[in-house]
Amino acid sequence: MHRTDDILHTVRMLQQENLDLRTVTMGINLLDCAGRDSAVVTKAVRAKIKRKAGNLVRICDQLTTKYGLPIINKRIAVSPASQLLEGHTPEAALGLAHALDQAAAEVGVDLIGGFTALVHKGMTPGERLLIESLPQVLSQTQRLCASVNIGTTKAGINVDAILLVSETLLKIAEATKQAHGFGCAKLVVFANAAEDNPFMAGAFLGAGEPECVINVGVSGPGVVKRAIERLVEQYPRCTLDEIAEEVKHTAFRVTRTGELIGREVAEMLGMQFGVLDLSLAPTPRVGDSVGEIYQAMGVKVIGAPGTTAAVALLNDAVKKGGAFASSSVGGLSGAFIPVMEDHVLAKAVADGTLTLEKLEAMTAVCSVGLDMILVPGDISSVTLSGIIMDEAAIGIYNQKTTAVRLIPAPGKKVGERIDFGGLFGSGTVIPVNNSSGSADFVRHGGHIPAPIQSLRN
Amino acid sequence: MDHRYVLSILIADRVGILSAITSGVTDLGANIEGISQTVVQGYFTVIMTVAFPQAVGEEAIRCAIQNRFHKDEASVLVRPYTPRSCVPCDGGRYILTMSGKDRPGILKALTGYLAEKKINVEDLFFRIVGEQVTHIGEVTVPAHLDLKQVQDELRAVMAPFALVIGLQHENLFRATNEVGSIRRLLKP
Questions:
Q1: What ipTM describes this predicted complex?
Q2: Does residue B55 sit in the same domain as residue B11?
Q3: CB pair distance less than 8 Å for A65 and B97
Q4: Residue A4 has pLDDT above 90, yes or no
Q5: pTM for this one?
Q6: Within 13 Å of residue A230, how many CA atoms lie on the same side as its CB?
Q7: Hey, what CATH class is A213-445 in?
């Protein structure tokens, strides 16, 4: 027999606090589609995706009915596409991108990730080809997402790759000028990329992963926010460790819904269940914001001193609750701070209380990095490289994932506003201070050696 | 061979009722095999099954319980226990929740629809706070029914009452409120 209060608690999370399963992401290894003939490769890619993921959306919809828990996005993450491009031409890269995009449309998923190159230690011709194709690819496809891993704690930071990616970012922005550089929102530059991350735009199927796997991403910032609000209403003098405890218990409940659905989807599809990623991933909706959580904790002005500590508390409590809830927690699992996708963070940037420097500090203790941030359209590639290097350094020296998803908005200056619509949200162009002050350092290029922490054997 | 009976007792709630009932039947030689008790708005009710090693008359059992209470304090019903096959339950266990403004007719409409669809109700209760009522039921939805259709029809039937209605598989509630392995929840 179920306890009444337990039932009502669960119902409240669903009906009033926006609990949902943010994504069910099917990982598909495409290596067996490799070949010399690009037409054969693209045909094999489309056929395999259709064969493996043809029932994904239908089964997710069935489980949404069964549990009353919305599964917002159904997605696919493929093995790094650069591995299919060795020895091929730019035309083949574009053809592969279109094939992936069309396959995603055919099976009804909204995004497909894995147009990816892992170049943290060096770059193959296929990986260079993939990166150089991105302006065309991201301006001509709708569902395809790309990522580049430019560093790891074990390998250090590939600065040459960062310089290339930064130049490419500006070209992508230019190629998608009509959409204010939207193509850049579909490219994530990682350090220590997670190979089982189900969230876009950075999802791809890593080398150690199974042939096919179901990974799920659960969210629920609204649930966490309301839990804290209730605690503070009931105990106005509660301490921060009591807030952390409340977050932990809430994260436990949220995580368990993800594992329940993920395992059932995997079983129905006859696939292995991989990980569930408990990340507080906001959407632009009111009540679905990570910034609102910080406000509920007492940080009324996002960016004020104490904000980084609030992020650290939240990120850590989420991980602890998730780790107790399931042995299958993976991916990024923590708190995201995608500025444009969170109305509170976006407003803080517009108000000038949240700066790029403060965001960078917050990324040292959040689960990802500088995410969905508009920068001036006239920013130089060297400045972009410097930002990416800083963010990579935070990740690599702290042995965590960091990522950069910056959007140089063509023709836009600091303070101008852009609206991408939908889940990508809207935002204000943020100032980049001292933008050319480190150009000589960045232009040295080469490789920043792996930190001493990497020598663990 | 044991002689089994099923008992039902209704009485205004106070401390010591269950002690009086269990003493009454135990002193008569019974072993209590099943029991479920609840209190609704100040009224205590219990249903129990008991077994005696030798035949005991229904009236004797009733008197053994009745004698533990004041005259006319308790209503006691005693019947011989007849083993019955369980209600067919080839289906999934779901939690039904309905909340909104209380008004007459809600339960009649709900149970009428559930009976028509052969959806068995295993547990049903509601809580009223002010004018707001929250119903919670545990039901078994036969496997051959289309769940989406049941949800849609239920909402249509209950639409005149303007309630927020949910019909969700019980595993969701177990997952969010229990600490056991999810893998075990999913095993039949």
A1: 0.86
A2: yes
A3: no
A4: no
A5: 0.90
A6: 13
A7: alpha beta
